[in-house]
Amino acid sequence: MQKTELYMREICDDDVADVIKLWEHCGLLRPWNDPQTDIAFCRQKPNSTLLVARMPEEEKLQASIMVGHDGHRGWIYYLAIAPAHQGKGLGKQMMQAAENWLLDQGVWKAQLMVRYGNEAVKAFYNKLGYEQSQCMVLERWLDASKRGDA
Ligand SMILES: CC(C)(COP(=O)(O)OP(=O)(O)OC[C@H]1O[C@@H](n2cnc3c(N)ncnc32)[C@H](O)[C@@H]1OP(=O)(O)O)[C@@H](O)C(=O)NCCC(=O)NCCS
Predict the structure, then answer these.
(1) Residue 3's pLDDT is what?
(2) Distance between CA atoms of 21 and 50, rounded to whole angstroms?
(3) pLDDT tens-digit map of 36-68
(4) Where are the domains positioned within the chain?
């Protein structure tokens, strides 16, 4: 596959509304995750970032990925490629950028979560070398008022 050129950078204030629209188009929004809060929280912290990208000939953002580390391992969230640009290698490039960001921070293992039953996305990550962990993810809502369905 010929590599599609991408202009990648960290999110800025003017991007926030467009990134939320992108997530909506990609089906990433959940009622219990307020995207404004998630973006603001990520941007406040030195151990996380939200990368966005566009094609050279287009002003509109076409891709995003959130990456951070918890002091031990790296975590990746909100990978989104605009539907019209899926299947062109952009997802792979965004993942490589997130992995490079983690390596620069001294983190050598990346983890991410895929919903049970989302076989297409699992197949994409498998293609990139991500394997099912031998550990279960356990969770507890520390603030019950924020509780969602998953
Ligand atoms: C999942 C998603 C990020 C993939 O991005 P993409 O740009 O379409 O994927 P790419 O074109 O970069 O594909 C990279 C490689 O994975 C392969 N691949 C992509 N989707 C695949 C699938 N469903 N099954 C098997 N392989 C797949 C490609 O063939 C390509 O292989 P190659 O490197 O050998 O050519 C994109 O479809 C998307 O944004 N989906 C909606 C949001 C979403 O579900 N995000 C993930 C949240 S966990």
Answers:
(1) 80
(2) 15
(3) 999 999 999 999 999 999 998 889 999 999 999
(4) 7-113
**Which ligand 1 atom lies nearest to the CA of residue 78?**
47
Ligand 1 pocket, mutate which of 93, 124, 127 (most atoms under 8 A from CB): 124
Q: Which residue in the block uniquely carries the two structure tokens 């293609």?
A: 127
The protein residue with its alpha carbon nearest to ligand 1, atom 27, reads 124
Residue 4 Cβ < 6 Å to ligand 1: no
H or E, element range at 16: helix 16-25
**126 CA from centroid of ligand 1 (Å):** 10
The CATH topology of domain 7-113 is Aminopeptidase (3.40.630)
Prediction pTM value: 0.96
CA 108 to chain centre: 17
76-91 pLDDT, tens digit per residue, is 999 999 999 999 999 9
